[in-house]
Design brief:
The protein contains five helices and six strands; from the N terminus they run E-E-H-H-E-E-H-E-H-H-E. It is mostly helical and about 270 residues long. The strands form three sheets. Strands 1-2 form a two-stranded antiparallel ribbon.
Length: about 270
């Protein structure tokens, strides 16, 4: 059943032919081919390149001049000397006399107090007269709140009505008065704004002249729309013609409704914008 495979092919295990792993010879392969160079993607260029370049050119070499700088030439006498850049210490003060000591705020150990000073004042009699003629010391007011006799100062307890004796007792503070005035002013402004809004939104009655003028204007508009409606073609064979006809019919119906309402009611109110 199986014959020998053709040249360049061989049978596989399943009986099918398999190609050779190498390419077949072809005369077209002998022709020279052009080498295709890989196309490089465009180089990335920042969007800020022009601004950066302009700024660099503007600030480039601002210190350069036309030729050498015209500065004073240093004198040859002012050459760098040894130890000239080292920090100089302040001049040393003259030594103080070691025999002369600084003044002290406390007495020395060798100092002696002045002795022999006596006073003729009788301190016993002076103290006795001061005690006899002096007023007795008033005891601090206290209060007791328990049976055990626990005592507390009455002044700091808050039981004394000492605050009602102040000059400004019962006077409304200034900040409260100022706050009340601001609150009243804000309330008045709010009420004024509410009344203004209500007045703007209130209904306005049309006068007879305005009613007649409005009615004449509506009738004139109806006549213009009706004249345009009469000018339409008889045959409506396109969609734009049908749409235009429907639009004119709706306008005429609305105008007729408005004219009918104004003619029925002689008193008309409108809302302010």
């Amino acid at each position: 059943m199986f014959g020998s495979p053709p040249p360049g092919e061989r049978f596989s295990v399943s009986g099918r032919t398999a190609k050779k792993p190498y390419a077949e010879e072809n005369i077209s392969n002998l022709l020279p081919r052009l080498e295709e160079k890989p196309v490089k993607p465009p180089r990335y260029i920042s969007i800020y390149r022009p601004s950066v370049k302009c700024e660099a050119e503007k600030n480039k070499a601002q210190w350069k001049t036309m030729g050498p700088a015209k500065v004073a030439v240093p004198s040859p006498k002012n050459f760098l000397q040894k130890h000239s850049k080292e920090p100089k210490l302040p001049a040393r003060r003259k030594e103080q006399d070691p025999k002369k000591l600084p003044e002290l705020s406390v007495p020395r150990r060798t100092d002696r107090p002045v002795m022999g000073i006596q006073s003729k004042k009788n301190f016993i009699n002076t103290n006795a007269i001061a005690v006899i003629t002096g007023l007795p010391k008033k005891p601090q007011p206290i209060y007791v709140d328990r049976r055990q006799g626990d005592k507390y100062l009455l002044e700091t307890s808050g039981l004394l009505p000492k605050y009602i004796k102040k000059k400004d007792y019962g006077v409304i503070p200034k900040y409260v008065t100022r706050r009340n005035e601001e609150r009243e002013r804000a309330q008045k402004e709010y009420e004024t704004s509410i009344l203004e809004n209500l007045r703007k939104k209130a209904m306005k009655r049309l006068t007879d002249e305005e009613r007649k003028t409005l009615l004449q204007g509506l009738k004139k508009n109806w006549e213009e729309v009706y004249r345009e409606f009469q000018g339409l073609p008889v045959e409506m064979d396109t969609i734009p013609k049908k749409i235009n006809k429907e639009k004119l019919e709706i306008q005429m119906k609305q105008l007729e409704h408005d004219i009918d309402v104004i003619e029925k009611h002689k008193v008309i109110y409108i809302a302010n914008e």
